[in-house]
Amino acid sequence: MNVVLSDMESTPLEFMESLKRTTGMKWTAIDWQSNQMRTGKASEARRYLKYIFKPLSVVFRKDVENIVAWQQFYGISFAFWSRLLQRPKTARLTVMTFIYKPKDGWIGNLYKRFIRYAVTSRYIDTIICPSSDECNRYAETFGVPREKFTFVPWCIEDHSTQYRRDPSRETEYILGTGRSNRDWPLLIESVRDTEYRVKIIDDTFKSAEIPENVQVFNNVGGGHALQYLANAWAFVIPIDTPDVSAGQTVLLTAWSFGIPVVCTRGKGLSDDYIEDGVDALLVDKDPVQLRAALDCLRDDPKLYECLAQNGRKKFEENYTEKALGRNVGQTFIERE
Questions:
Q1: 174-318: what fold?
Q2: C-beta of residue 38 within 8 angstroms of C-beta of residue 203
Q3: Where is the Glycosyl transferase family domain (predicted)?
Q4: Most-buried pick from 75, 200, 222, 253 (CB within 10 A)?
C-alpha cells in the first residue's frame, strides 16, 4: 500500500492522479485535517498533538510500503516514533514541504532536537524543500548528507475561476496575506501617509499602531480571503527573515489570479520562483524601496499588465497541483 499523509480536508485529486500516472503506482490519501484557522493556544495545542500522534497509526501498519508526507510533520513524527520504538524499516518515506525555522529558548532547543532525531534516522529517505538554498542549509544544520534533500517547486489549486473580480465590492487595494515569516510592519510603514489602501489578512498579527489606510483582518480565511484577492489591485509579500523559505503559496495564488506581485528579496522566492521585472518586482527590505515599487505599478500600466500576464502564464505552466504530483513522482522514481 502507498499512502499520502496530508493535513487537508481532502488531498487534491489532480495531485493524486498525477502522482499515480508518473509513478505507475496506486496511492491512497490519508487526510488528518489539522491546519484550520488558529484561534488561540488551545487550537494550536490540538494542531501539534495531531502532528505528533496521528502518524502512530501508520507506524504499526505492516501493509504500507511507500509514504509521501505532504504535511512535513506527519512524516517527521512517523520517523521519530519509528526510531524511538525501534520499528523495522518497512516503508520508504518522502517528506514534502520541509521548512525549519529555529525557535527561541528551551522550546527551540527541544524542537531542533526533535527534528534532528527524525531527519538523521534511516526512516526518512528523501526530504523535499521548497527552495534550493534550504537544501544546502538544512543539510549543514542537521548534519545530514546533502543528497538526502532535493528541491521541488511548490504548487497550488487554481481558484481563479471560482472567485472572480466583483465590481460591487471594494477594489483597487493592496493585499497581503499569510502568517509565516511576514514583516507586516514593513508594509505598513511603506504606505504610511499615502493614498494607498492596504488590507492584511493574518490571524496572528496584532499591532496597536495601524494607520487609517490599513486594515488588518484576524478572522478571514478560505473563500473569503480568495475573494479579497480577486478584487485586489496588487499583492505584497514582505518576508521577515530572508534565509527562511516562506510565501510560495501566496505568490502562486496571486499569480493564478493574475494579480501583480511585489516581494522583498529572500533565498526562496527570489532565487527559485521570481524573475525580477518579468513576473514580479523584487525589492530590498526597505519601506522606501517597497513604496517606489508600488509607485511603478501605479504609474506604468504596461508594466502592470506585463507582470499580471506573465505571472498567470508561469503559474499555468509550472505550478499547478498536476505539476506538483508530476514533480514529486519524478523525484520518487529518480531516487528508487
A1: Rossmann fold (3.40.50)
A2: yes
A3: 205-313
A4: 75
Axis-axis angle for helices 301-318, 248-256 (nearest 10) = 110
Specify the CATH superfamily of domain 2-155+321-334. Glycogen Phosphorylase B; (3.40.50.2000)
Give dist(CA 246, CA 282) in Å, integer: 15
Is the torsion defined by CA of 19, 133, 315, 285 positive or negative? positive
Supply φ then ψ for residue 67, to 5 degrees. Answer: -130, 130
Residue 202 CA to residue 52 CA, distance in Å, equals: 25
Helices and strands (H, E) in the chain, number of each type:
13, 12
Give the residues across from 280 on adjacent strands: 276
Grid coordinates of 27: 496511492
CB-based contact 235:261 (threshold 8 Å): yes
Q: Give me the sheet containing 66-69, strands edge to edge.
A: 28-31, 2-6, 66-69, 92-95, 126-129, 149-151
pLDDT in tens, the chain (336 residues): 999 999 988 898 999 999 999 999 999 999 998 765 555 677 777 888 899 999 999 999 999 999 999 999 999 999 999 999 999 999 999 999 898 988 999 999 999 999 999 999 999 999 999 888 889 999 999 999 999 999 999 888 899 999 999 999 999 999 999 988 899 999 999 999 999 999 999 988 988 789 999 999 998 888 899 999 999 999 999 999 887 778 999 999 999 999 999 999 987 888 899 999 999 999 999 999 999 999 999 999 999 999 999 999 999 999 999 999 999 999 999 987
What are the residues whose beta carbons fall under 8 Å from the beta carbon of 79, sequence distance 6 or more? 93, 95, 118, 119, 121, 123, 124
Cell 514534502: give the residue. 96
